[in-house]
């Protein structure tokens, strides 16, 4: 059974000028321990997909099943109780959105542990993302962007999730920090956590994803094993994305 099963997903936004059909019949599944990269240009619907899966947007049609639970029509109370189970966690592009600016790093990391009924210190979480304990007393604003993103990953790990949604997790980072966070994500993948890695940058995703799905104007136009998508893309839009990253074949595992 899939850990995440999205079928025929449609999402609309209401705008002053009318309704926008942002996702048009998306089918996507992620198995336990699998890493799936979703790529697409700006406005293709990537963040909409992540937000719908997290219950932050209403679904017009289709079904979202997470770990056997149909969450499509959950109300807020059901979402709160489902989130507490900690099956799925998220990391956004801007870690300041995942971290409360008024809480120290220690408080930010202790909160999800308490929600899981745990009384232990958050030091082991910092260790997993290779940050020094001396950062515990700082506020998010007192960290570098790369350190903040690693704290956001540490916070997501507190609930020992089986699936982490990552929406452009390395886009705001400089290249050294990007490499560090990607290494960290590979370790999570290797430890068996399923990842849904959303990015406009095929180069970041290709080195880590088992499968790549391509979103184009709200439709999933391609979905296949990473090597196959990179070497034998079927859709013209995928071909275009691939031709824009000349070094791609080097980062794709054989
Ligand atoms: N809250 C909203 N209200 C109305 N339209 C929205 C809203 N959020 C997104 N959209 C529109 O929905 C479409 C998909 O947006 P989405 O943010 O999912 O794209 P994206 O692929 O994540 O883009 P980016 O890479 O720039 O973050 C776009 O046309 C966008 O303008």
UniProtKB/TrEMBL annotation:
Tell me the Gene Ontology biological-process terms attached to this UniProt entry: peptide transport; transmembrane transport
> In this entry, which stretches build a coiled coil?
none
Q: Where is each ABC transporter domain found?
A: 4-242
A molecular function (GO) held by this record is: ATP binding
InterPro entries referenced in this protein's UniProt entry, alphabetically: AAA+_ATPase (IPR003593), ABC_transp_ATP-bind (IPR050319), ABC_transporter-like_ATP-bd (IPR003439), ABC_transporter-like_CS (IPR017871), Oligopep_ABC_C (IPR013563), P-loop_NTPase (IPR027417)
The reply to whether Metal-binding figures as a keyword in the UniProt entry is no
Keywords for this protein: ATP-binding, Nucleotide-binding, Transport
Task: Name the domain of life.
Answer: Bacteria
Question: A Pfam family for this UniProt protein?
Answer: oligo_HPY
Task: Report what the protein is called.
Answer: ABC-type dipeptide/oligopeptide/nickel transport system, ATPase component
Q: What organism does this protein naturally occur in?
A: Actinoplanes regularis
């Amino acid at each position: 059974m899939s850990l995440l099963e999205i079928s025929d997903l449609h999402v609309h936004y209401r705008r002053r000028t009318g309704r926008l059909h942002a996702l048009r019949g998306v089918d996507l599944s992620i198995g336990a321990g699998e890493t799936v990269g979703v790529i697409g240009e700006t406005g293709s619907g990537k963040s909409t997909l992540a937000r719908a899966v997290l219950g932050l947007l209403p679904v017009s049609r289709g079904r979202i099943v997470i770990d056997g639970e149909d969450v499509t029509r959950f109300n807020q109370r059901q979402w709160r109780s489902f989130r507490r189970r900690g099956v799925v966690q998220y990391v956004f592009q801007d870690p300041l959105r995942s971290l409360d600016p008024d809480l120290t790093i220690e408080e930010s990391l202790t909160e999800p542990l308490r929600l899981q009924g745990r009384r232990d210190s958050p030091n082991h979480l910092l260790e997993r993302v290779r940050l020094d304990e001396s950062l515990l007393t700082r506020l998010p604003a007192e960290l570098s962007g790369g350190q903040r993103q690693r704290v956001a990953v540490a916070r997501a790990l507190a609930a020992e999730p089986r699936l982490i949604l990552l929406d452009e997790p390395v886009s705001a980072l400089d290249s050294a920090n990007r490499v560090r966070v990607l290494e960290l994500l590979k370790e999570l993948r290797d430890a068996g956590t399923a990842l849904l890695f959303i990015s406009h940058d095929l180069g970041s995703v290709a080195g880590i994803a088992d499968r790549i799905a391509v979103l184009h104007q709200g439709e999933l136009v391609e979905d296949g094993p990473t090597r196959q998508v990179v070497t034998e893309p079927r859709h013209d839009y995928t071909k275009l994305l691939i031709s824009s990253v000349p070094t791609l074949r080097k980062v794709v595992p054989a």
